[in-house]
Fold each of these.
Amino acid sequence: MNNSKVAIAVSKTISFIQLVGGIILVFMFGLCAIMYLTDKEYAGETGIAFLITCLIITGLGIWLITLSRKKKKLVREFKKYVAVISQDASGYIPDIATSLGTSEDIVKSNIELMIQKEFFTNAYIDRSSNCVVIGNKQNAQTTMSTANAYANSTNTDMSTVEMVTVKCNGCGGINTIAKGHTGTCDYCGSAIKGV
């Protein structure tokens, strides 16, 4: 399993645990806080410290639910970003922002977070050109060097190597690969095959 799939699976798992934990905390301690506020006898038995504790733990539950939703949204956004970046070889952040209908700052922040969480493999943001650079997707030369390597490894003539475009099943990114050759997705590192 590649790093991107692992990172996304871990993020989804943590998001689920945060959501369930948050819901349990909000339900249990929120209910206790409501009981405290509505039942004077219960309030008298438990004291104000109990109410404060319940409110703090309820707040913690709400915070966990919020974190869960942010993680889930980032995973959903990843496929949108891959689709846009794979269509635009330049990776120019203002163009990506326009395609996604959001600001450059949000796009840059999301991409940095996706890189940090290892959703993108071998990626970085080139600040001087304001572009996102995906490891093997830097330019057309990379595609030609892949074709040359394939031709050399199989002892075939370069003129007979047919390049095909393949959509990654893992992230939806568009990759160019020699027909019949296996490789990895430029965006998430999943295995792909030139069919």
Amino acid sequence: MRREKKTVGLIERVEVIGKKVVSTNAKFDTGASGNSIDTTLAAKAQLGPIVSVVKIKQANLKEPKRRPVVDVTFRIKGKKYKTRANIEDRSHMSYPVLIGRELIRNNFVVDVAKTGRRKKAKKC
């Protein structure tokens, strides 16, 4: 039986479920392989324990960065998805949660036209 994929926008409201439930905005990023959660949000949701460590390559760094990984459940559009996410300081980013291809692949179609929080492009 083939599962029907839900359509999501680039930015969606999600719940991060650990020992506590925290609601926040998440960016669905088809360019990212895995999921990432901000350290402060992970603490609020009381995620843990750390189940592994992953090395992340970043274009601006010579050496891969090591990040802790935790099991997490996301509630997206009313349905729960159990997965893993790395924990990183995302306070300088626009969104505290990044959903990558690992979760998107079999569950979602990302339609950027459905994104509710778009900024209009400035004309040159």
Amino acid sequence: MRKEAQTRILEAIMTRRSVRHYLARPVDGETVAALLESARLAPSGSNTQPWHFVVIRSETGRRNLVSVCHDQKWMLEAPVLVACVADVRSRIKDDSPLSLSETSPEFEVKQIIRDTAIAAEHLVLQAQSMGLSTCWIGRFKQERIRGALRIPSDKYVVAVITVGYSDDQPESRPRKPLDEMVHFETWGGQP
């Protein structure tokens, strides 16, 4: 059983592609709930679980979001958009005023981005394993996307994930071999 599970996970990783063309087929609520549940179960530093998810399904909501994501019109083909939002208040407990942006100096911001990215990738891999396709969107400015989704200024939008049934078969993109990126014991160390 263990080998079978390992193969399923590796298959989802190996077959995942960034898809930008979707079928006009809705994704039901139960399926979206399963994706969100997989993200909820992600690990986080000190178990802070800083993530929140904004699910956008309406035509108006998707158009509004696309307009702040550099007008990437192809995103409208996806029936579901999920904004993955990191909450710095999971680490900074006081009520001090914070306004997070791409240049925020607080160390905790890096921690919540890391943790929320793990949760977002759980969602992406779960989608792949369920026959859905996704694309990770990061081309937006915090101020604009927060305004579009009414997200408070002390939250940080890590990604928008498009979700739907693929109408495309993108080829795999080249990956560097392991020996170019793996080091043993120290940087540059050999096995």
